[in-house]
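Quick question, first post here. What does this chain look like in 3D?
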Amino acid sequence: MRLFKDAAELASMTGQEIGVSGWHTLDQSQIQAFADATLDQQWIHTDPERAAGGPFGTTVAHGYLSLSLLPYLASQVYRVDGAAMIINYGLNKVRFPAPARVNSRIRDRLTLASVTETASGRQLQFHHLIELEGSQKPACIAETVSLLPS
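> Answer (accepted):
Ran it through. Tokens below.
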């Protein structure tokens, strides 16, 4: 966990890797809970018996589950002291290069790509590389935009 004393100190890291989160296991109960919350009950996520004969040999996590874990994983990487909040502002690009099979482990390698001053505060663009343990390809690559209100 990197602790930044303020937004200016974080901004000094533009273009650099901030850090790497701990590993998180994507178990079937979390995959099922995500399916229930999003109403995406596709069998490759929710039916272990059928998925055993499918293209991945087991169930796989939703790509959007990996994406939705970005705030949780990033919270393990950094914090800005005195920041009341950091608001999700949007996404520039998202890709899911490799499937995250049930019980696989993922982690977030986080880089601060850019910082832009706005009337509302600092707009932070992050590059997230969601590494998939044992895989050459990541589970997710995402460019997120966050707002650190002034």
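The beta strands are 2-4, 17-20, 24-26, 78-80, 87-95, 104-118, 121-132, 140-149.
The first strand starts at residue 2 and ends at 4.
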